[in-house]
Write a structure and sequence with these properties.
Layout: E1 23-31, E2 36-43, E3 49-51, H1 67-74, H2 80-87, H3 91-114, E4 121-132, E5 139-146, E6 153-160, H4 167-175, H5 182-193, E7 197-205, H6 211-218, E8 223-226, H7 249-261, H8 276-294
Parallel strand pairs: 4-7, 7-8
Antiparallel strand pairs: 1-2, 2-3, 4-5, 5-6
Helix pairs in contact: 1-3, 2-3, 3-8, 5-6
This protein binds zinc ion (ZN).
Length: 297
C-alpha cells in the first residue's frame, strides 16, 4: 500500500479522498545494513522524496541486524558490554538499541494485555523483589503481578525505597533521606491491572502488612488470601522457597526467573543497575520475552 506524504504542510493533505493520492513510486534502493531492497516514493504535490522506512521507528537506524540477537541475548543473562563484544558493535550502540528495543517491547506488551479485557482473570499473585541502583545504600523495589495459571507477568513497577537494617544509618549519612515511593508504585500497578482482572478475583500474596489496604483501594470486592513466606532455597536464588508445597509458587518461580535471566538481578553479581531507567528498560525487554517465548500460550 502506498503511504501518504510524510510532510505535514504538504498541500496534498487538503485534497479530499485517500491521502496517498499524490504519491507515486519512484524506484528502489539497496539498504546495506540489512541487505533489503527498499521502495522509494515521490510526492507530486510538494516534490518530497521519501522511502518505505520514512516515519517508522526504525528510520535511519544503521545496525538493524543486531536488533533481534540483542533482544534475545539481553533477555538471557547477558550483560550489555558482553553483548557489544559478541555482536561486534560499540557499547554505546548497544545502549541505544537496548533503549529502542525496550520501547518496542513495552508497546507490544501493551497490545498483548488488551486481550485480557475480554476474558478477565479470576486469580492473581503479587509480591515484590528487591534490588538497588548504584549501591546497596540506594535500594529499589520491583513490584510484580503474575497470572498463576500461565505464569505470565501482568504488570511490573520499579520504585525507590529507603535502605533497611544496618545500612539505613549509613545510607542517610551518605546520600540523605531517600523517598519511599513503594506505595505510589503499588497504586500504579494495581490501577493498570483493573481492566485485566475480574472485580471479585482472588489475590494471593505474602503477609506484607501494607498489601490489604492498597488492594482494597483498587479492588474493593476482591478476595485476598495471604501465605507465610518460608525460607529461601539456594536454587532459585532465594526466591524459590524450601516448602513442600508453595502456594505462591508461580510468583516465586517468576521472581527466580528474573534473578536468573537479568544479568543485573543475579545475586552477588558485579553487573549492577546504574540508574532506574536501565532497570525499567531491561525489565520491559524481559517481560516481553517471558510472556511471548518462555511461557506457553
Ligand atoms: Zn507532499
Amino acid at each position: 500500500m502506498k503511504p501518504g506524504c510524510p510532510r505535514l504542510k504538504c498541500p496534498s493533505h487538503k485534497i479530499p479522498g485517500p491521502k496517498s493520492g499524490s504519491v507515486i513510486a519512484n524506484g528502489t534502493f539497496f539498504r546495506a545494513c540489512d541487505s533489503r531492497r527498499v521502495r522509494r516514493y515521490i510526492c507530486r504535490s510538494c516534490g518530497l522524496n521519501f522511502s518505505q522506512s520514512t516515519g517508522t521507528p526504525r528510520y535511519r537506524q544503521k545496525r538493524r541486524r543486531i536488533i533481534q540477537p540483542l533482544y534475545r541475548l539481553i533477555a538471557s543473562t547477558l550483560s550489555q558490554r558482553r553483548a557489544a563484544i559478541l555482536l561486534g558493535v560499540d557499547k554505546k550502540t548497544v545502549v541505544r538499541y537496548f533503549r529502542f528495543i525496550a520501547s518496542e517491547c513495552a508497546k507490544r506488551e501493551k497490545t498483548r494485555l488488551i486481550k485480557y479485557g475480554g476474558d478477565r482473570l479470576k486469580q492473581l499473585q503479587f509480591d515484590d523483589l528487591e534490588t538497588f541502583e548504584h549501591t546497596k545504600l540506594k535500594p529499589l523495589s520491583v513490584a510484580l503481578a503474575v497470572d498463576p495459571n500461565t505464569r505470565k507477568i501482568l504488570g511490573i513497577q520499579v520504585s525507590r525505597m529507603p535502605a533497611k537494617g544496618p545500612l539505613a544509618r549509613k545510607s542517610v549519612q551518605k546520600y540523605g533521606r531517600r523517598k519511599d515511593e513503594r506505595n505510589r508504585g503499588w497504586n500504579h500497578l494495581f490501577k493498570s491491572l483493573v481492566p485485566l482482572v475480574h472485580p471479585d478475583a482472588e489475590f494471593l500474596s505474602d503477609q506484607n502488612p501494607h498489601y490489604p489496604s492498597i488492594l482494597r483501594k483498587h479492588f474493593p470486592f476482591a478476595k485476598h488470601a495471604v501465605t507465610p513466606g518460608g525460607r529461601g532455597a539456594v536454587t532459585g536464588q532465594g526466591e524459590l522457597k524450601k516448602l513442600v508445597f508453595d502456594p505462591l509458587f508461580a510468583l516465586n518461580h517468576t521472581c527466580a526467573m528474573l534473578r536468573a535471566n537479568l544479568s543485573r538481578l543475579i545475586r552477588r553479581t558485579w553487573c549492577t543497575t546504574k540508574n532506574i531507567r536501565g532497570l525499567e528498560d531491561h525489565l520491559a525487554i524481559y517481560v516481553d520475552y517471558h510472556n511471548r517465548v518462555l511461557t506457553p500460550e
